[in-house]
Amino acid sequence: MINVVIFGAPGSGKGTQSNFMKEHYKLVHISTGDVLRDHIARKTELGEVAKSFIDKGQLIPDELMISILGDVIDSHKDKAQNGFIFDGFPRTIAQAQALEGLLADRDMKLNCVVGLDVPDEVLIERLVNRGKESGRSDDNLETIKDRIAVYYKVTSPLKDYYCERNLFHSVKGWGDIDKITASVWAVIDNSL
Question: What is the pTM of this model?
Fold first, then answer.
């Protein structure tokens, strides 16, 4: 079983690379962003709470995300014979510790963390273009800058956390997409 966290700033290509990993390794892709957007679209109570944070470029509170993730893991456990890709989670050290606990409770462990390293100007360009194409409310210039600032302040300390556990592997996340994918797969293959 392979359990991978894909890590990077908004617009770093986590979703794209997760889709490639999902197909190649036959993993279940858990995108917390997709889960939250689904709740928002269905106007659930969780969706309304999540939307209030997302629209401001803020992170969802830890205990709410942890609860959601546990439910998603359990609902996909039968389909996840080969493991999971965690995309957009964890975003804080508390969430990383909670993920370790969630996995341990299910006799699983995290194999590696793939960090997609992309310059800010590339992130901004990608997100602005994605916003034009998708109409996502959080892909406007003001919110993008807020999301990147929150990433550096809150999420980037996870790199040190995972480096200390010998799980973090940085990959150049811009340029030729096939080279990026090959680098991601090499990290995963070496973590097995």
Answer: 0.86
Please check whether residue 45 is in contact with residue 104, taking contact to mean a CB–CB distance below 8 angstroms: no
Catalytic residue among 14, 79, 126, 172: 14
Residue 61 within any structural domain of the chain: yes
Are the CB atoms for 84 and 73 separated by under 8 Å? yes
Cα–Cα dist 36/38, whole Å: 5
**133, part of any domain:** yes
Active site residue 42: no
Number of domains in the chain: 1
Can 147 be counted among the known catalytic residues? yes
- State pLDDT tens for residues 159-189: 999 999 999 999 999 999 999 999 999 999 9
Is residue 165 annotated as a catalytic residue, yes or no?
A: no
Domain containing 134 equals 2-179
Residue 190 placed within a domain: no
